[in-house]
Amino acid sequence: MSSAEINKNEVDIVIGALNADLTQFLTSWRPFFSGFHLIVVKDPELKEELNIPEGFDVDVYSKTDMEKVVGASNATMFSGYSCRYFGYLISKKKYIVSIDDDCVPAKDPKGFLVDAVTQHVINLENPATPLFFNTLYDPYCEGADFVRGYPFSLRSGVPCAASCGLWLNLADLDAPTQALKTEQRNTSYVDAVMTVPAKAMLPISGINIAFNRELVGPALVPALRLAGEGKVRWETLEDVWCGMCLKHISDHLGYGVKTGLPYVWRNERGDAVESLRKKWEGMKLMEKSVPFFESLKLPETALKVEDCVIELAKAVKEQLGSDDPAFTQAADAMVKWIQLWNSVNSSA
Amino acid sequence: MAGYNLEAIEAAPLKDDVDIVIPTIRSLDFLEQWRPFLQHYHLIIVQDGDPSIKIKVPGGYDYELYNRNDINRILGPRANCISYKDGGCRCFGFMVSKKKYIYTIDDDCFVAKDPSGKEINVIAQHIKNLETPSTPHYFNTLYDPFRDGTDFVRGYPFSLREGVQTAISHGLWLNIPDYDAPTQLVKPRERNTRYVDAVMTIPKGVLYPMCGMNLAFNRELVGPAMYFGLMGEGQPISRYDDMWAGWAAKVVCDHLGFGVKTGLPYLWHSKASNPFVNLKKEHKGLHWQEDMVPFFQNLRLSKESDTAAKCYMELSKMTKEKLTKVDPYFEKLADAMVTWIEAWEELNPPVKSEASEEVNPQVKKRQSDGKDVKAN
């Protein structure tokens, strides 16, 4: 499937602006963003005016817009990296592609720039295969297929809910790891897309992600906020928590989550050692989350995404609330998110 | 030896800990090309088909060779658990080996090149895979975190970063892909040209189709579960030997807390078998796998099964119980699974001692000069 076959009208590209000057970012992405509608959401804590080059079909949202739509008290839900969720909320499109504003197009091993947008949409448009692992990875791509021993009843696959891309150069490692291996950069281009099997948990990164908004939009929850959350990815876990919820709900509803291509090139930013100095509560929260999600079973009656989120929030409050206030806040935020989602999207 | 990569030959990692098991019915000429990587390793050749045919092993390789007569002599009545006229006979080699690791390869597989043009040392990669931990409890989006140049990603729980022991390393193939007959018939020209530069752990609780063409495993951990079933002549099914072993071994690994990796290394698969012949061989399997897969997906082994052999005995009971209704073949298979474990335990007694070295005087080794030598 080439970019000519993608229906650009079905896609919103949502960019969370944590940096005011988006010139370099948007200019580098111009060949691949061209023809798409962009939603740029400014981090409400960013004081400077955004600098956006000409020639894009873009709507920009700032704190004022957020307050108009969700009210001043709820607007705090969208600060920092979570600002992009406001874009998810108000979008009307089928697919969302979201890339951090410190990433530019990567080059594949042949030296060609990677069209991350098209690859994400292709991933989303083709079925996922979470119920049985295909050793040649994506069976729907050119030159590959299901291997011997793959049950035929499982070959039509299931709808793909999310496409998790990867990163060359600065990989999405946590602060301790990057601080220990200061020089390590990801130079390995793994030429594969694959479905993460059902029930397998994984850390989903928000740096380079796309999803089917019509299918699972409400499941992308801006919920877990670290007390010391900062403006570099090393100081946040909102996407990881969101991803755990998304994967669990996708598994429950029988959808698939893919990982692998496309790659983006992630520029140098921040200082892992500096980030390490902050109290690293994220680690503790992750440790508590894992057994919770491992044993969690959503009720069979939860058939809609919104209901799944509410049930999940209930379970978080009941089982994790006493462990850390961050979990109670996350649960409350998830409930609030669904209320906002329903109110904003019912009038659509 | 002119023109051979002497460095690679000398390098032979862990050569005293690895046996290379090769089932063959035709020729072992392919071993000529493998010299730089395999020459220092001990081979166990399982000759399928007519035992009167003399199969020539390229000079310089240290090997033991077993034909059907040897299998019958060594196992006696238990020999009926070893397939005839099918690559599944290779598991006899797993049973007679005494090494920690097994690498098994098909005789139509050759050395592949990576995208930089470098020849791929499959055995070195498999050993790396087996000697580094797996991560079945949580999927790492940068794949094997123990490979050079990569690591665990942000959000990966620290308590799970130690990983678990790796029991199986499943390699892949360039050129002729391992398709079933229907796919082969529809796509006769398709070749796998995609080199995916990754090794990854298959998550716990997830099944996959294990191909025996390019496979390594820790025999001490999971050997008894690597039974390649009843296939070939006299059986209603073929080309499901490695599938059966793969599903059983994965379930056993998940239960015992071991990991299974897939991905690198690649080799070059040169021969496309006849799809019509394949269809005849596997067509029952195409239907039966619809029952076999849910069977493996849903079964739960008991706590008491704390070794691969015990797990496998339990598995044989479950097979008889749950799959006989699909076809009476499975009752035969279940019995053969028991026979396999009995034979395994006779040749590999659970408790190691001086005396056990003399386990079975029937096991004869043939040196490369063709003389019979008693096992020590």
What does the model show?
The complex is a heterodimer of chains A (348) and B (376). Chain A is of the alpha/beta class. Chain A contains 11 helices and 9 strands. The longest helix of chain A is centred in the C-terminal third of the chain and has 22 residues. The model of chain A has no long low-confidence stretch (mean pLDDT 94). With 376 residues, chain B is an alpha/beta fold. Chain B has a domain of 251 residues. Chain B is globular and about 50 Å long. The interface between A and B is large, with 55 and 58 residues.
Describe the secondary-structure layout.
The complex is a heterodimer of chains A (348) and B (376).
Chain A: E1 11-17, H1 23-33, E2 37-42, E3 57-61, H2 63-70, H3 83-90, E4 95-99, E5 103-105, H4 116-125, E6 160-169, H5 175-180, E7 193-196, E8 208-212, H6 213-216, H7 238-253, E9 256-266, H8 272-277, H9 281-295, H10 305-320, H11 325-346
Parallel strand pairs in A: 1-2, 1-4, 2-3, 6-9
Antiparallel strand pairs in A: 4-8, 5-9, 6-8, 7-9
Helix pairs in contact in A: 10-11
Chain B: H1 6-11, E1 18-24, H2 31-38, E2 42-47, E3 62-66, H3 68-75, H4 91-96, E4 101-105, E5 109-110, H5 122-131, E6 166-175, H6 181-186, E7 199-201, E8 214-218, H7 219-222, H8 241-256, E9 259-269, H9 275-298, H10 308-323, H11 329-347, E10 364-366, E11 372-374
Parallel strand pairs in B: 1-2, 1-4, 2-3, 6-9
Antiparallel strand pairs in B: 4-8, 5-9, 6-8, 7-9, 10-11
Helix pairs in contact in B: 8-10, 10-11
Uncertain ranges of chain A:
none
Structural class of the secondary elements of chain B? alpha/beta
Distance between the termini of chain A: 31 Å
Overall 3D form of chain A: globular
| Helix fraction bin of chain B | 25-40%
Tell me the radius of gyration of chain B: 20 Å
Largest sheet of chain A: 9 strands, mixed
Overall strand count of chain B: 11
What is the helix tally of chain B? Answer: 11
* SSE string of chain B: HEHEEHHEEHEHEEHHEHHHEE
Distance between the termini of chain B: 31 Å
What spatial form of chain B do the alpha-carbon principal axes imply? Answer: globular
Strand content of chain B: 15-25%
Task: Tell me the number of strands of chain A.
Answer: 9
Structural class of chain A: alpha/beta
Mean pLDDT across every amino acid position of chain A: 94
